[in-house]
Amino acid sequence: MIRLLLADDEAMIRAGVRSILGVDPDIEVVAEAADGRAAVDLVLAHRPDVALLDIRMPVMDGLAACAEITRAAPATAVAMLTTFGDDAYVSRALDGGAQGFLLKSGDPRELIAGVHAVAAGGAYLAPKVAARVISRLRGTGLGRAAAARAKVDALTPREREVLTLLGAGMSNAQIAKRLDLVEGTVKGHLSAILSRLGLDNRVQAAVLAHEAGLVGS
């Protein structure tokens, strides 16, 4: 069972997201908050597996709440609820430790898939916002995509396979199962990928996978 905290200052949005997540018997919303400060306090009280945070909230916004939750409750994975107007904040959310970016108005199946991905230790970018996320993080133009592809070309074939599955939102265990590897081997490949590409975390690696065209947007 995935225990989740939901934070958004709009009650109707919370109701809609809760209704979508309620379709999945493996997800339980254990607490709700209308501002970032309350979200942090409830995470510390309930220790959920996932905190799903709106970016724009009163008292403390989702970016600050993400950073504090990552510091104070590292076992809780953080995913940000975004709109098309919020993608300018993505780099700050990454710096704060966010593991996923889910679109409020996207396909409900993507919302559920994203929650499962971050709960399992994966990184998830909603397909419809991936291109905009990449544009904000890496700049625009064909030259940036070419640079990403050049970086990926330096990886071994197996490392490219691992990076592709990481970009698709899979956890280490899921990647291991797909590629018929032991999980420790996957961890080794990921460590090598991050080192070779000069990246700090798996979310940045997922972004690069999208930018290089390894994952369909």
TrEMBL record:
The modification 4-aspartylphosphate is found at D54. PROSITE patterns: HTH_LUXR_1, HTH_LUXR_2, RESPONSE_REGULATORY. Keywords: DNA-binding, Phosphoprotein, Transcription, Transcription regulation. InterPro entries: CheY-like_superfamily, NreC/VraR/RcsB-like_REC, Sig_transdc_resp-reg_C-effctor, Sig_transdc_resp-reg_receiver, Tscrpt_reg_LuxR_C, WalR-like. Residues 148-213 form the HTH luxR-type domain. Residues 3-119 form the Response regulatory domain. PANTHER family: TRANSCRIPTIONAL REGULATORY PROTEIN NARL-RELATED, TWO-COMPONENT RESPONSE REGULATOR. This is Response regulator transcription factor.
